[in-house]
Amino acid sequence: MSDKVVFRQLFEKESSTFTYILGCKRTKQAIIIDPVDVTVERDAKLLNELGLKLAKAVNTHVHADHVTGTHLLRSHFEELKTGLGSANVAKSDEKFEHSHKIEVGDISLEVRHTPGHTNGCVTYVDHEGGAAFTGDTLLIRGCGRTDFQEGCSKTLYNSVQTQIFSLPEHFSIYPAHDYRGNTSSSVQEEKQFNPRLTKSESEFVGIMENLGLSYPKMIDKALPWNLNCGVDPS
Ligand SMILES: N[C@@H](CCC(=O)N[C@@H](CSS)C(=O)NCC(=O)O)C(=O)O
Ligand SMILES: [Fe+2]
């Protein structure tokens, strides 16, 4: 990570979700990626302790397993703007096109559309810090499932190969979840060891058709709330 940036990786244990904070040391403005509703108080307290003011709260996609904390964070940081990839129909202050640069102080994140897990998935790339926040598109030694939310395994395969594996090999990979105790990886490691994405496209499609995962416990609440920026739609 660049020495201009304060970086924190946080974990929410019920959904095994990682939330990331990137703060600009010069302007004290910050961006949060994939906050969870139940850990908003923790995140706001940490931001305040670090002397950071949240300018943007963004998601990598419309999550199916937890309610986003983007809306709740507004009560702590009134001026913050929420953000999401432009292929999503969900409510959001900002919708990012492919190649858009999110600028917060000295932090710059390139938005790369990486559909496949959902149609609206994006990866946020910090070129200066050498890091990619891949959401559920690429997990450590795994990847997001493709059996709901307009998921498509061929599309995911293409997104990873063209938008993530094309990054420099030393770039760190920071996913939205890990279920096995890992915290980060690198482009080089995943190109070499990912048991799904090292396969041919047709083998990959076969693997994804046979994952046999049950639906996330919170899907029936999470989807409608997250389509409404984390607010109860009823
Ligand atoms: N058991 C969890 C849900 C686990 C799950 O389905 N994870 C998703 C990411 S959240 S949409 C996934 O893509 N997993 C891929 C994999 O290979 O594990 C719950 O009930 O919440
Ligand atoms: Fe997901």
TrEMBL record:
SUPFAM superfamilies to which the protein is assigned, alphabetical: Metallo-hydrolase/oxidoreductase
Question: Where exactly are the transmembrane stretches of this chain?
Answer: none
Reported cofactor(s): Fe(2+)
Q: Enumerate the spans annotated as Metallo-beta-lactamase domain.
A: 16-177
Q: Name one GO molecular function term.
A: metal ion binding
**Could you name the Gene Ontology cellular component terms for this entry?**
mitochondrion
- Localization: Mitochondrion
State the UniProt keywords alphabetically.
Acetylation, Dioxygenase, Iron, Metal-binding, Mitochondrion, Oxidoreductase, Transit peptide
What does it catalyze?
S-sulfanylglutathione + O2 + H2O = sulfite + glutathione + 2 H(+)
EC numbers: 1.13.11.18
Q: Name one GO biological process term.
A: hydrogen sulfide metabolic process
Q: Which family does it belong to?
A: Belongs to the metallo-beta-lactamase superfamily. Glyoxalase II family.
How does this chain assemble? Answer: Homodimer. Monomer. Interacts with TST. May interact with RELA.
Name of the protein in its database record: Persulfide dioxygenase ETHE1, mitochondrial
